[in-house]
Amino acid sequence: MTAGTLPITGRTLSQPPDLDIIPEPNCPPMRKAGPVRYGGEMRGQVQDKAMSKDEVRDGVELTNLDQELFEGADATKRDLVEYLDAVSERMIPGLTNRPLSVIRVLRGQAPFMQKNLPKYTPSWVPKVPLWAESSKREVSYALCNDRKTLLWFANQRAVEYHPTLFRVGEWDRPTYLVLDIDPPDTDAFALAVTATQLARQALVGAGLAGAVKTSGAKGLHVFVPITSATTEEVAAATRALAARAERLDPTVATTAFVREERNGKVFLDSTRAGGATVVTAYSPRIRQGVPVSYPLAWDDLDGVNPREFTIHTAPRLVAGRDPWQELMPEPQPLPADLIAEGREIPIARVQAMHEGRRRARAKRETAHKDDGPEAGSGSTSDPSAPA
User: Fold this and answer.
1) Torsion of the alpha carbons at 181, 19, 29 and 306, rounded to the nearest 10
2) d(CA 281, CA 225)
3) Which of 9, 106, 114, 283 could make an SS bond with 33 (beta carbons 3.0 to 4.6 A apart)?
4) How far is the CA of 216 from the CAs of 151, 159, 307, in angstroms?
5) Is the domain defined by 175-273+294-363 classed in CATH 3.90.920.10?
6) Which is higher by pLDDT, 374 or 176?
7) Distance between CA 61 and CA 53 in Å, rounded?
8) What is the pTM of this model?
9) How far apart are CA 334 and CA 206, in angstroms?
10) How far is C-alpha 247 from the geometric centre of its chain's CA atoms?
């Protein structure tokens, strides 16, 4: 076993499903991480040779700190490092022992999602091997459990941090139920706030309490800490809560998974369960100005501009405190009736997949009819047709 690797045995029910980052609408286009070669060398190797060592912090060499982070960031790599270091004590608890996917942005390249750690990863970075059924291979996920690992990721230009909702060894026990509040466009945050308050009403009606944060993009995330529930139970309860919130005001909120069916309403995304990941509190986002996912009090939602929370402003706001921890209620059991209700609601992704296949089949059938023989062409087998 390599240093820093946690042993995981078996690929049974205790093994999580494939981890899945769900890019938010208007997210910069991403490519999958892979070995890009320049003159026969790996991209990381070339970059390492070009790097100038600017500073060493907690044993981590930090390089090229004065480079622009990405176009439109209004920030340098140094700004990213300083921010992540400033909030590390608040951010790491949300990452500890959770398989981590990050979104990196290298100079001159599109942002890309990294799940599998590169071969040059230091041996002291904790990691956990998970089987990816879709690609039929083992993927080595990082566990960002300390400041040193977070600084290493910062030096790798990892901007976004997307952990799982479960911890290592507890694959079928998510610690949170999450509702992702997704407005129709970037200028509809006020509408997202209205939908989030509907979600809160649904929570209260179910006897539950949660905390809310900006997504760092255009919407909001509602987190409900839970105790001793399976992935299937959490997924069912999430669908039920989304449906209840939609019924409170269907002119504002919708659970329609297919974008074309939302008609300008706020999407209550109930699919953040199982192998899905959610950006952690305080994580920066690859957006103009580098906003961060920031915790909010329920009563403060109406007066908030999410663009105010950036890697430049957030450190002052959290100085001496941890709003996410302060606002998070104690873990609570999921009501049995909520789970039962959710089990009667079709899974949004599966339903959308079947609908997509139905539409594609109908389109093919229509095309086939249009391409068929014309009436009276003599190509039919009608016995009454003239010889």
Assistant:
1) 30
2) 14
3) 114
4) 21, 12, 8
5) yes
6) 176
7) 6
8) 0.81
9) 9
10) 26
- Other C-beta atoms within 10 Å of 139: how many? 18
Q: Name the nearest CA neighbour of 194 among 220, 213, 216.
A: 220
Residue 77 and residue 156: Cα distance in Å, rounded? 10
**How far, in Å, CA of 143 to CA of 133, rounded?**
21
How large is the C-alpha radius of gyration of the chain? 24
Q: Which residue matches tokens 């993927």?
A: 139
- Token pair 């769900």 in the structure block, residue: 22
**Strands of 220-225's sheet, edge to edge?**
253-254, 266-269, 176-182, 220-225, 211-214, 295-296
Tokens of 131: 């089987």
Q: What is the tens place of the pLDDT at every residue in 183-222?
A: 999 899 999 999 999 999 999 999 999 999 999 999 999 9
Supply the angle between the helices 147-155 and 77-86 in degrees, to the nearest 10.
170
- Computed over every residue of the chain, the mean pLDDT equals 84
Burial of 254 (0-12, 13-18, 19+ CB in 10 A): buried
Please tell me the distance from the alpha carbon of residue 17 to that of residue 11, in angstroms, as a whole number. 10
Q: How far is it, in rounded angstroms, from Cα 148 to Cα 57?
A: 8
Q: Where are the domains of the chain?
A: 4-8+13-171+277-284, 175-273+294-363
3-state DSSP of the chain:
CCCCECCCCCCCCCCCCCCECCCCCCCCCCEECCCCEECCEEHHHHHHHHCCEEEEECCEEEECCCCECCCCCCCEHHHHHHHHHHCHHHHHHHCCCCCEEEEECCCCCCCEEECCCCCCCCCCCCEEEEEECCCCEEEEEECCCCHHHHHHHHHCCEEEEEEECCCCCCCCCCCEEEEEEECCCCCCHHHHHHHHHHHHHHHHHCCCCCEEEECCCCCEEEEEEECCCCHHHHHHHHHHHHHHHHHHCCCCEECCCCHHHCCCCEEEECCCCCCEECCCCCCECCCCCCEECCEECHHHHHHCCHHHCECCCHHHHCCCCCHHHHHCCCCECCCHHHHHHHHCCCCHHHHHHHHHHHHHHHHHHHHHHHCCCCCCCCCCCCCCCCC
Whether the CB-CB separation of 143 and 99 falls below 8 Å is answered with yes
Closest by Cα among 102, 245, 250, 91 to 180: 245
